[in-house]
Amino acid sequence: MIAIFRLLVVVQALLTAVLWLLPYFDYQWLSIEELLVLEDSGTGAVFTSGNFIAWGIFTIWMALSLGLYFFVRLAREAFVVFYLVNFGLTLFMGIQVLTPLDQVVLGLLQVGDGMLIAIAYFTSVSQKFRTSS
Question: Using CA atoms, how far apart are residues 26 and 110, in angstroms rounded to an integer?
Fold first, then answer.
C-alpha cells in the first residue's frame, strides 16, 4: 500500500505541474477566438490573483506532496486543510473557463486528491504518518 500511495503522490504532483503549465502552451493548439475566451476566466471574481499568488499556491502543493511522499505528519493535515481552503475559495473565483484538456486534468486531480486523503487516513499508510515526524 505504501508503494501505491507514493506512486499516487508522484502522479498527483506531475498532474499538478501539467495543470499549472498548460496555459503556457495553449496558444499552440487553440484558435485566437478560443484564447480570447480563456482570457475571460475569472470574470466576476471576488479575489483576483496574479502570477505571484498562483505560483505560490503551486509551490505549496508541491511542498505538501513532498511531505506526503516522506510521510511527514504535518503535511498530511496541511494537505487536507489546504485542499478544503482551496475548495471553499472556488466560490469566489468568478467564472472559470477551461479547455477540455484542463478539465480532464483537473478532474483527475480531484479524484486523485480524494484517493490520497482516503489512503493517508484510512489504510495501513496512516501508521507511517504516526511513526514519522
Answer: 22
